[in-house]
Amino acid sequence: LNSWPDNASLDKARRLLWPVKQKYGKQISWADLLVFAGNCALESMGFKTFGFGFGREDIWEPEEMYWGPEDTWLGDERYSGDRELSGPLGAVQMGLIYVNPEGPNGQPDPLAAARDIRETFARMAMNDVETAALIAGGHTFGKTHGAGDADLVGPEPEGAPIEQQGLGWKSAYGTGVGKDAITSGLEVVWTPTPTKWDNSFLETLYGYEWELTKSPAGASQWTAKDGAGAGTIPDPFDSSAGRAPTMLTTDLSLRIDPAYEKITRRWLDHPEEFAEEFAKAWYKLLHRDMGPATRYLGPWVPEAQLWQDPVPAVDHQLIGDNEIAALKGKILNSGLSVSQLVSTAWASAATFRSTDMRGGANGARIRLEPQKGWEINNPAELSKVLQTLEQIQQDFNASQSGGTKVSLADLIVLAGTAAVEKAAKSAGHDVTVPFTPGRTDASQEQTDVESFAVLEPRADGFRNYLRAGEKLPAEALLVERAYMLNLTAPEMTVLVGGLRALNANFGQTAHGVFTDRPETLTNDFFVNLLDMGTVWKGSESAENVYEGRDRVTGDSKWTATAVDLVFGSNSQLRALAEVYATDDAKAKFVQDFVSTWVKVMNLDRFDVA
After folding, report:
1. Which of 337, 335, 343 is nearest to 505 (CA)?
2. Last residue of a domain, one of 398, 425, 455
3. Is the dihedral of CA 452, 454, 459, 465 positive or negative?
4. Which one, out of 121, 166, 209, 222, has a CA that is 20 to 30 A from the CA of 442?
């Protein structure tokens, strides 16, 4: 990320912050400092921010993230058809954070750019009002840099010579800095007051007609037509000179796109509304990846917002050991199978994403829109399970005195816990799966349907699910899913093997269920996967399916997907599979599965150490 084209010159900004970081050391993370500096900058220019929360952590290696299929900067192979952007990507080109400010693929078409803007910001769960506020608010300040020929700019930090010590984009144009700086190649100063919060961006946007021009670096931008406003924009490097008003293609989108135009024209006459919307959108942008507000630190944290996926506070006495034991008995005698209970608990908890701390079992949002309608959750089957668990919950709560209650969120996880214990006992292992109550049930009103829609899995290798039309390899998506769940390779391995044994596949398919005793927590998946008496080949009748046949007789034994077979094909995963396939690994397998299962169930329990 430090070398993305869109991050040009941020290497210098980070160096400016180093004395602050050096002074305060571990008292503030780099992650907090970077965004807090931006917040302070807005306040120094007269803007009233909505709030701020500390609590971001630093990492020390790049994230294992899928950024797109391209292998060149600014490539756009992510599109197909009528400019359909492949999910789950948001940026329009490799190396850009949002959209191309010159327009789609550099074509200066404000209306087409508006389509890109809307799509990209929607994938960050930003609506039209928030999107317009962020663009107009952000461009109330500062300038872009495109003083000269972009070919004179040197390589990015990761490609720069070692003696530059992590600094990149060294320019040979003039002094290379100040009035000679080149970053994006665009040379735009939006307002006559670029270091002050006011309504001048919108006043300038609507105060002139615009014509397409070129920056000194050759980039497409817009200038006030027929010389209007000449000299009204101060030159930041020469107080005696003035400039003409200029805008980006994406700025004009706010005026030309009908929906954005309706929003921004109102703000032109109601600047107080604009300020409020920008403050809220800015706060959301800075805190989007931090999870619920309960994780925020510091004195400036406002009340929880809808986009933070709030859940109610616990307002009842939590169930204890006796109640837990009684509820387990009722669950296991309810007629629901081990696979139904395990699948439902997994579906509830495995929505968690470590990248933005969203999802998870707390809130029991699996019973709400949109999750209850997701294909992967098998809505008809899910409805039956939830109806049964809700009845158990209602009966239990009605029978209690002293304020003891169980939430459906807790009951769903407890049901999976009971099922795992039963499956382990069937395999000869008497284990107690740790369970910590304290989850609560969110309401539909506390759930932003559009925002939650982006959590819908396109694949879940743990359930052998792959959405129709998915182009990326299923085994690669399994690794991505494991990363989202904060799982190590051994944890991913034991979970796949265990969930296959528990018969928790999507649609109850037999792929990878390498056992004649399903719903029993055995290591059969690994034993039979590594059986050298089985030979595998692609199925002639089913896509993305493999058939395992007896090497001698040719009789069909098993079916599998690439997610299953990768544990025998990949050398690292095969080594892990071998650990669990040995004759003396049965107890270890159960112990490791239970430990990892509990980890996933508690991923969103930020209240539990």
Report:
1. 343
2. 455
3. positive
4. 121
Does residue 577 form part of some domain? yes
Spatial separation of the C-alpha atoms in residues 532 and 566, rounded to whole Å = 15
Whether 406 contacts 316, CB under 8 Å: no
> Does residue 191 sit in the same domain as residue 280?
yes
Nearest to 545 by CA among 507, 492, 498: 507
**Rounded mean pLDDT for each run of 10 residues along the chain, 609 residues in total:** 86 96 98 98 98 96 80 82 80 83 94 95 93 98 93 92 94 93 94 97 98 96 96 92 96 98 98 98 97 96 96 96 98 98 98 95 98 97 98 97 95 99 98 98 96 92 94 93 97 99 97 98 98 95 93 97 98 98 98 99 93
Confidence (pTM)? 0.91
445 and 498 in a single domain? The answer is no
Start-to-end CA distance of the chain, whole Å, equals: 31
DSSP state of 94: T
Tell me how far apart the 2 most distant CA atoms of the chain are, in Å.
91
Assess whether 325 and 279 both reside in one domain.
Answer: no
Helix, strand, or coil (residue 181): coil
Tokens describing residue 350: 């495995």
Does residue 312 form part of some domain? no
Q: Which residue has the tokens 């539909």?
A: 444
What pLDDT is stored for residue 265 in this prediction? Answer: 98
Select from 455, 477, 501 the last residue of a domain.
455
Same domain? For 207 and 67 the reply is yes
Q: Contact, 310 vs 490, CB < 8 A?
A: no
Alpha helix segments (H runs only) across 199-248: 200-207
Look at residues 231, 248, 146, 245 and name the one whose alpha carbon lies nearest to residue 200.
Answer: 245
pLDDT of amino acid 172 = 93
Q: Detail the DSSP E strand segments found in 71-215.
A: 79-80, 84-85, 210-214
Domain interval for residue 447? 321-455
Task: Answer whether residue 432 is part of any domain.
Answer: yes
Cβ atoms within 10 Å of 299's Cβ, excluding its own: 8
Q: Would the CA dihedral through 17, 8, 284, 443 be positive or negative? A: negative
| Predicted local confidence at residue 590, as pLDDT | 99
Number of compact structural domains in the chain: 3
Mapping DSSP to helix (H, G, I), strand (E, B) and coil, where does residue 507 land?
helix
In single-letter form, the type of residue at position 29 comes to S
Q: Is there a single domain that holds both residue 466 and residue 451?
A: no
Tokens of 454: 């982006």
User: In this structure, are residues 580 and 523 in contact, taking their beta carbons and an 8 Å threshold?
Assistant: yes
Hunting for tokens 């930003």 — which residue is that?
Answer: 126
The token pair at 384 is 């039956």
Q: How far is CA 307 from CA 132, 287, 372, in A?
A: 17, 10, 19
Residue 439 within any structural domain of the chain: yes
Hey, what amino acid is at 105?
N
